[in-house]
Records
---
Amino acid sequence: MVGRKLFINGEFVDSNEGATFESINPANGEVIARVAEAREEDIDRAVQAARKAFEEGPWPKMSATDRGRLLRRIADLVLERRKELARLETMDVGKPLRDSSKVDLPLVVDCFQYFAGMADKVMGETIPVPGKFLDFTLREPVGVVGQIIPWNYPLLMAAWKMAPALAAGCTVVLKPAEQTPITALELAKICQEAEVPPGVVNVCPGFGEPAGAALASHPHVDKVAFTGSTAVGKLIMEMGAKNLKRVSLELGGKSPNIVLDDADLDEAVPGSLFAIFLNSGQVCAAGSRLFVHEKIYDSFMDRFLVGAKKIKIGDPLDRETQLGPLVSAEQLEKVEIYIQIGQEEGAKLVLGGKRPDHPALAKGFYFEPTVFVDVDYRMRIAQEEIFGPVVVVIRFSDEEELIRMANSTIYGLAAGIWTTNVKRALNLAKAIKAGNIWINTYNMIPNQAPFGGFKESGVGREMSRHVMDLYTEVKNVMVYLGKGGVRWFS
């Protein structure tokens, strides 16, 4: 069993109290590593190191161009180690190796490359104010950033948070989820190898209490960036409010995936399977509410169920596996509870709803692709985020009714629309309250495009040039170019 330490001020160190926890392989329940557990004192050490690095030493003197070169070096090192990192990611979170290697790692590399190019393009503007003045703005880094990431995309979420913050000139204290700390610590090793100055990047695995709470409420943290559940996001915002730190949140979703009567089923069926069953449904933007027009309902569902039955469940390290386990026993239990809730509410379970019977999978946290039909949009299974391979299917006939049902939840993260009519698609895209709309595709999240939600799905936007607003402050500078100055009292 491998031991893993905290990364603080450029070094791997034990926790102050010597506390550790186990990282579990969800495919078989075995312990991968014993990991140092950050607690309040460790978070304080990391924040102080990040504060010193931001105020002193080489980091504040480094040019934006040099920061860009550093980010490119990190991207190159991730690329060199992509096979090892993909395997570690699969072992830690349980996603199929083909997902980790073909989706996650390329996006991680692209993320660091993209923000390497962004580093020297964070610019101010000149403003044509009246009078003999030159007025311009500067974009300056917000400071020390606390970043708290979830377990469903551990390495990619670390990249999403870390890369733009470093490009802006901030320093970082990253708390990965306690379920999946391994690849974030590997990324810390890569930062060390890339010669990121000490204190600029700190990685402190730990639990929400005390580590996450200590980071979110620390008086020397200037901003908190959190990805996770809406319930925890609200707590993070409350903690940040105590000293008015900046807070950005990328939270939950219950996204509508809409199949109109003129959709091309050859695209809509596999696209809808991908929308919900990618990463065993553990995707914040998952198309977990499937709205199907009554005119094509039967033909669509026949094909959808056939496709879902063919999904291969198995060892995520097997490249033939399409659906791996859920991340933990706790998440498996949560999904099982929602299956019971759905049946009690009167929805009809037509596929799955249980752990697979195969004895080779008995020790892991596996759950079959699950489909509910005859679902009322007001049911809990159609309103609450399950975060598993569970889709609820809702029949509709009227587009006004569809819009009302689609917008009926507290969430507004994403939506999918399948149609061959561009006019219908764009009108629906405008009517649906969500931050991300996919038309005739799903779950496409390039680093160049903004990602975030309406309503209780979050605050702010990740990725693209828009994320730089979260990691910079705007400073206005006004210069008087005339003679005489201000003589108000003379």
Note: The chain has two domains: 2-251+457-476, 256-439.
---
Amino acid sequence: MYVAVKGGERAIDNAHAWLAEERRGDCAVAELSVAQIREQLTLAVNRVMAEGSLYDPDLAALAIKQARGDLIEAIFLIRAYRTTLPRFGGSIPIETGEMTCERRVSATFKDAPGGQVLGPTFDYTHRLLDFKLAADGAVDAASEADPDGTATPHIMSFLDREDLIQSEPQTDETPADLTRTPLELPASRALRLQSLTRGDEGFILGMAYSTQRGYARNHAFVAELRIGAVAVEMDIPEIGFAIEIGEICVTECETVNQFQGSKTEPPQFTRGYGLVFGMSERKAISMALVDRALRWKELGEDNLGAPAQDEEFVLYHSDNIQATGFLEHIKLPHYVDFQSELELVRKLRREAVETYPMQEAAE
């Protein structure tokens, strides 16, 4: 139970003013602009867009600035703003096979059809502080050619031809929208993937890492990781066909996993899948591993009791906004609740003294 605090409104106003002062920092230092955050803190912007379920780099950058760099608070701001937006309709599914790739790698095929494109990656950096950045040094221009706009086929399609990988059921049914309807268990794979996309990157990463350490039967290979631009199209009833309304950057990961077969499925490779807004490859790979771990039931596998196989545990605890709200509410006033607990403990101690007087004296 919460109770009013005398002078609380004035204290809250002062707290807001102090927060704004702390957000600005030293006025002798130039203020960070939204454009600078958008262009130079791109990975942070991408995470806020992905977990906030809203593709808008400018708004994500603004949220990061307002939140003083606290990405979870920025995600909260974006989700809250998202609820105010009108809905004009739904887009048709994006065709990632038509992606213009700026990064595309495979850990399973060295000579992948369409070639491998390293793109902008930390994979080959030395993880040493670059003090040139502190001196605002110039950036060396990349010598690799820009994407030429040619569509790159999925590597998984080549395994499909040999019937070596589990086929995915095709359906025209529109999946439920997790942003509009509450999550119910058991959840369809479409809902699970939505939940994982919105889930906290650190939590999903931890779950994925647990599968690699043996807390699920999940030895995965990255069949393909691709990052690039895809067109967003929308059906317009008045004209009778779909038109392109924009373009977004996404990261897609497909994994192949060993599968010895079960009572319902023959030995073959199985899939894990991840798709995230922006350049978010760590999240996409983690998502693919957890997706595969959660598919144990449909594949007829045994549940090994691993955390990543527990649908309720993963999906209900991955949302950082829900977790933050429940966690941080305990710092709000609970004076009456605590007083009742305090009186209960005092009563129990009195009863204990009356029942065991010698033990209390010894203490």
Note: The chain has three domains: 8-82, 96-118+152-167+181-324, 334-362.
---
Amino acid sequence: MTTLAYTLSDSRVMLRRNLKHQLRYPSMTLMLVGMPIVLLLLFVYVFGGQLGAGLGAHQGRSAYLDYVVPGLLLVTVAAAVQGTSIMSAMDMTGGIIDRFRTMAIARASVLTGHVLGSLIQTLAGMAILIGVAFGLGFRTTVGPLAWLATIGVLALFAFALIWLAVALGLAAKSVETASNSPMILVLLVFLSSGFVRTQTMPDGLRQFAEYQPFSPVVDTVRGLLTNAAVGEHAIAAIAWSVSIALAAYLWAIHLYNRRRAAEPT
């Protein structure tokens, strides 16, 4: 077998291991699925009547439901990275890496297993959220190609943030620290165009919201689901995703190799 074949085979084994861990810790999965649904109900039924009044020609609670769903899909992604960071830190601090070091497995497969497992979990969480949103009255008239593009943008951004979560987990000194590090990502979703239009924000906050990575992703997803133009937003979303993924991957590999080298043999 070639090196690539070995890496793919080892990554498949690590993916299965991480999927089994997700089943062993159902509370993390419930939090991933439950928090965006609770926020959906809260924003639509508590704040939706007021916030929907400022959306232009189409106003009201139903209009705000269509507006807020893309932002909550990003909340699902941000919630998933916390579990990823925790699981990465548990591997690094729990001694399992010592066992992996004695085995002839590809180095990248350990981290790749975390990333792919979390990506599957995240996509499942987003699918459930979309199903609940449709049950509440969310509607879109776009075709299969727009849906495929939407899934592609969300999957690429989730892939980038999950690699970042892996790096944060490796950098953490403890599992407790790893659980807190990704919280800034959840905050960034709320400081974006996910819940209100950036034009309604004060100048300094508006500029920050428009140029941080979550806003172009939200605007791209919202545009794809409403048949609106997404040109500049899509370019920015893809650029942010690729940049974050590359930087986080290199950081994670560096941390993993450095901590392996520092451990006793």
Note: The radius of gyration is 20 Å.
---
Amino acid sequence: MIKDLEFATPESQGIRSEDILEFMDYIAYRKINLHSFMMARNGKIIAECYVNPFHKDFAHRIYSASKTYVALAVGLMVTEGKVKVTDKVVDYLQDYIDTPLDHWVQEMTIEDCLTMRQPMFPDKKSLGEKDKARCYNLMNHSYATYPNGSIFCYHWAPDLLCVAIKRITGMEFIDYLRPIFDEIGVSKDIWCVKTTEDYCWGTSGIVCTLRDFAKVGEFLMHYGNAGGKQLIDRAYIEKATSSRVFTLSANNYDPIRGNGYGYYTWITPDAVLFRGMGTQHCYCFRDKDFLFVCQADTQSPTEDDSPWMYDAVKHLVYDRIGRKKKEGKAYLQLQEALQNMQPPAFGKPHAAYAQEIDGKTYTVNPGNPMGWKNFRFDFDPNGSEGTLTYENDRGVKKIPFGIGQQKRITFPETHYYDKVLGVPADRELDSTAVCEWLEEKKLLLRVYVIDTCFGSMFATFSFKGNEVALAFRKCAECFLDEYRGDGSGYRAE
């Protein structure tokens, strides 16, 4: 079991080091912002990799992969005879209801929620970024479009189950799972973001290490059995990891979203998956006892969760299992590659034009969406780092950065959430920052927030004589909103 952290060479488990190296080459080619990954076969770890500043003890948000943990908690309740999946959800949420409910909502079952076949859709205002009553709003400010248990629609049903679990067991779902976590070796450090209604946000909130993520994946892959102990009813896990509803709705087939959905799991022709925003992925290839897990931040306006990672693992590693190759040079190369994997780079670290802007203050024209008033770049003489100083609507801020390499920093805003959804952290979030020259007079500043919240901000500064154009793009859920938009300015005399 992965619990025992037993390592083995890929070749001893029928996998070639060359194939894992090719997978890593593909990650580098695609410039994927991967933070860590693990491959295991037959319960033995054959590859484990962390990209600086991440490491084996780093607790990483896994976003929607959290939903599968909620399904496991429901499975434990079923095993203990506390509920049946045919139970009506409203029976456990009466104190959250103060308006008449549509009859389809009244008939909605636990299984309807587990399979994302809930009939309800919230009003636009009821689940906004700063929402303070998610479960209440779902129950009282939703409308039903079709019968419960009919159409797949990826939505916020896990919120309802998280509250129901707490009502039934007297514990948060993550605490209720602790006996299972102990059996499979999940650390005590795993935790979950809460909502302002004071329940753990199983829709998107779990924070855990890569190894803990892998241990839960192995448990699911083995049908709820750990070390010969059947901890969750096997029949429930079989339902949870088989297609209960067809998911393809348009001409956009891919192997993940175009097949089926179980109980907060995605079903492909070869594997069972649970996955979260930004590529927090776990793939369970049962037929070959092969497990892949990764943590990353690939949030993007166009390809936040495309199937490229799954395709790479399947075609470059899984499909090739069993090809014979003796351990040798490739294995040594793989060990070196696993120790030295680097984050993506997009430009050159230095440009002669840096001397022209070093220490110069630029005034930003009023009306820009970021609320910036001015900024200045200062580059250290050693050429390895620098600082962006700017003034926005909240005061004077500084972003230190590495030149051509990531520098660990804290992001100079304190109003983003941390332990509780929508409640300001009142601290600066851990981040990294790097500056690169895309062109002779075009500078790119990339900031990656790597805290409870994960997200990125790409700021491009294009200089033309005494003028400058600013283009800010952010990829983050519920924060960094003040760091998106376009603007212009000029060098102050």
Note: The chain has a mean pLDDT of 93.
